[in-house]
Amino acid sequence: MQLVSILHTTAYEFDREVQLGPHQLYLRPRDGFDLRISSSRLDISPAASVRWMRDLFNNSVAEASFNQPTNRLIITSQIVAEQYYQCGPQLGLETTKTGAMASSHTLTALTAFQQVPDPNETMLPEWLHLDQHVSCAEAIDQLIEMASYIKAHFQYTQREEPGIQSASETLSRGSGSCRDFTWLLMWALRRNHWPTRFVTGYLVSEAHPDASGATHAWLEIFLDSLGWVGVDPTCGDLVRGKQIAVATSVNPDQLPPVAGSFVGPATTESRMFVSVETAFISSPNADAHLASNR
């Protein structure tokens, strides 16, 4: 087990007072056997009424509602989590030989995660092809090879603008953000009928400084006998404990960490600032560590 601290701040500044609409916040990491929330604090200014819920994909989402007008919004999420998933998926004896593709009954339940927008958008490069008849062990090996290829041959860029590049754009440019690399691999796997889902969260790794210090994205593929397995093409490997998942969805455009609206004059101008600090904690006094990061 390792302790992880996450400090995520999002701030908006307006050049005049506005009335904020409801905001949806995807900031709380995904609890489970692999990760447990040790402490969690959500600070919002101006004061907000917060309602927690589970969305369609069982993600934790906080809805913040505001009463008074303001010219600034600051949202700070402080998390200390216990991370237990450090090695990646464990192959049992039965998974080394059995097929990786799920049964037809299971695939029916996963139909939404197999849909490919513009399936004939571009030709599928050979290195992005994962055959349906491979074993779980072979699938794991090939997924690592695909992720490694993207990391080695594509240039990472930290794009600030919203939206996702199409698979053909990423292939032709040879560059993209973590979201773009994730969608490229999802698109290729879905072209071969593999169920995949988009994951957003955080990366805690000094080995990837360009991708750290911001929210991160990767994918999960459903393999028979193993369930959802994380693959991170930006890091070039499977998910092995450096990624902290917050939420999942069918497509990459459904999970902004903070989403909301405001009402004000049409000429209102706004600016947004985002800061993310992540670190492994060796000291058991995690709360004191977080306080020192403020």
Question: Characteristics of this structure?
Answer:
294 residues; alpha+beta; Immunoglobulin-like; C8orf32 fold; 2 domains; five-stranded antiparallel beta sheet
Note down, in words, how this protein is organized.
This protein has 5 helices and 16 strands. Helix 3 packs across helix 4. The strands form 4 sheets. Strands 1, 3, 6, 15 and 16 form a 5-stranded antiparallel β-sheet that branches. A 5-stranded antiparallel β-sheet has the order 12-11-10-9-13, covered by helices on one side. The protein has a 4-stranded antiparallel β-sheet with strand order 4-5-2-14, with no helix packed on it. It has 294 residues and is α+β, with helices and mostly antiparallel strands. The C terminus is likely disordered. The chain has 2 domains: 120 residues, Sandwich (Immunoglobulin-like); 148 residues, C8orf32 fold (Roll).
